[in-house]
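User: Please predict the structure of the protein below. I'd like the answer in structure-token form so I can feed it into my own downstream comparison script.

Assistant: Understood. Taking the following sequence of 272 residues as input:
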Amino acid sequence: MPEDAQNRFEATRPHPARVYDCLLDGKDNYPVDQEVADELARRWPEIRLGTQENRAWMHRVVRRLAGEQGVRQFLDIGTGIPTSPNLHEIAQDIAPAARVVYVDNDPVVLAHAQALLTPVSAAGTTSYVQADLRDPAAVLASEEVRSTLDFSKPIGLTLVAIMHFLEDAEDPYDVVATLVDALPTGSYVALSHACGDAAPASAAEAAVFYRERGVSAPVVPRSVAGIERFFDGLELLDPGVVPVNRWDEDPERRLDEDVWFFGGLGRKHRTS
């Protein structure tokens, strides 16, 4: 398809990465994406708060890893359209020489990847891999991952609101286990996930609408126990798997209600 025709097609078809960008009040979306985001929010009023709190959780967990835990390299899988501040901006603000690899299988994200490849400082490194999470071996074997990250030193693996797009038949736990097995001792895994235990009744109606609009693969909310299972073999750090707004929360900013994204941080103690 010619580039101008492809652009026209994309502008008339809602896209999950751009809908998510809308919910984050981003700028990289079309009216068709805004319509879907607005309708989702009408049917499920909590969705904007959930996505925004999930983004804020990512900021906090990266600050903790780059600061308190001293992590200097990150592998972010399921990156999505860059919304500033993005992961590398946070990490390199704390540690200017931090190295970050972004991974996504989405051609729309690829079109925005140039924005991801601009380090905050001359000492930092960022790179981008066009690859599918469902094939973790290919992600790990990619030239960008191997040339950017040093697998003899701790790595922060971030899986932010991505694993719920894998159905049980796609072996999501095996996918994460493969990634964790490759990480060196002292590495960390930060993961957030839609939680079926916490989603309000309005979420089901919104999910049906989302699928009928053909926006995305099915979202598979999992229980708290199901989310904790992703951390098998890791030390799950306090406060465990909790609503993202309750994880390492800012005491100056408390929410009365919990959100339906749950997140946790695990540490690897030995090489598998």
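That's the full token string. The domain at 3-267 is CATH 3.40.50.150 (Rossmann fold).
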